[in-house]
């Protein structure tokens, strides 16, 4: 790339790369050249993962066979975004991918939170806050609102835990009331509660 296409920006991580071209013609030229180079050194491009994607947004309103791709756990595709003047438009943005979300939900399922009724809520937070914080730190760099699905999932698991642990917490309504009270008393207990916007400004400033 440095020798043959110095004006074409690209990102690479291990054996995955994204190359930014200004036209489909340029993209096909670069793709052919990269493929030839790979064969020259005894390698080849992955036939299924190597694709040309059209970055469709509010300004680029053309069409392409593919308008999304996944890179390093992020899915890049057209998404609604708000400009500085408050107007909403379509931008080509990354957010946590469906496959990454599925993998995280599977890991949470393996925690088996609802059945850990022999320990306190504080202990659950101590056990899992580091892992939750790691996901937040990585996947909240872009389009943070996409993580709300993860936070909702965690809240549901905590409410299921409460329903198993406490006799008075029966049904979804009482479970939600229990969770709201806990957040009010201990707004920093789980790291995602502050990021989720469930904590009032007064509580956020409390010591």
The secondary-structure class comes to alpha+beta
Strand adjacency order, main sheet? 3-4-5
| Major sheet size, sense and barrel closure | 3 strands, antiparallel
Mean pLDDT: 90
β-sheet strand percentage = 5-15%
Helix content: 40-55%
**Helical region count?**
7
- H/E series, N to C? EEHEEEHHHHHH
- Radius of gyration computed on alpha carbons: 23 Å
Keywords:
7 helices; alpha+beta; two-stranded antiparallel sheet; 207 residues
Explain this structure.
The protein is an alpha+beta fold and 207 residues long. Helix content is 45%, strand content 14%. It is built from seven helices and five strands, in the order E-E-H-E-E-E-H-H-H-H-H-H. A three-stranded antiparallel sheet has the order 3-4-5. Strand 1 (10-13) and strand 2 (16-19) form a beta hairpin. Helix 4 packs across helix 5. The longest helix has 19 residues, at 121-139.
Question: Secondary-structure map with pairings?
Answer:
Blueprint: E1 10-13, E2 16-19, H1 24-40, E3 69-71, E4 74-82, E5 88-96, H2 98-111, H3 121-139, H4 148-165, H5 171-185, H6 191-196, H7 201-204
Antiparallel strand pairs: 1-2, 3-4, 4-5
Helix pairs in contact: 4-5
Tell me briefly what this model is.
This protein is of the alpha+beta class. It has helices at residues 24-40, 98-111, 121-139, 148-165, 171-185, 191-196, 201-204; strands spanning 10-13, 16-19, 69-71, 74-82, 88-96.
């Amino acid at each position: 790339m440095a020798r043959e296409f110095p004006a074409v920006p690209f990102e690479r991580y291990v054996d995955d790369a994204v190359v930014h071209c200004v036209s489909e013609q340029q993209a096909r030229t670069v793709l052919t050249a990269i493929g030839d180079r790979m064969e020259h050194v005894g390698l080849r491009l992955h036939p299924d993962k190597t694709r040309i994607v059209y970055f469709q947004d509010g300004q680029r309103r053309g069409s392409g066979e593919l308008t999304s791709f996944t890179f390093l756990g992020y899915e890049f595709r057209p998404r609604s975004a708000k400009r500085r003047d408050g107007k909403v438009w379509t931008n080509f943005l990354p957010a946590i991918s469906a496959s990454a979300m599925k993998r995280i939900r599977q890991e949470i399922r393996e925690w088996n939170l609802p059945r850990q009724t022999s320990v306190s809520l504080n202990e659950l937070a101590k056990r899992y806050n580091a892992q939750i914080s790691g996901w937040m730190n990585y996947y909240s760099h872009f389009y943070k609102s996409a993580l709300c699905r993860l936070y909702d999932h965690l809240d549901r698991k905590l409410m299921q835990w409460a329903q198993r642990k406490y006799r008075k917490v029966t049904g979804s309504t009482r479970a939600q009331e229990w969770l709201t009270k806990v957040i009010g008393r201990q707004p920093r207990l789980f790291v995602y509660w502050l990021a989720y916007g469930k904590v009032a400004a007064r509580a956020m400033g409390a010591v």
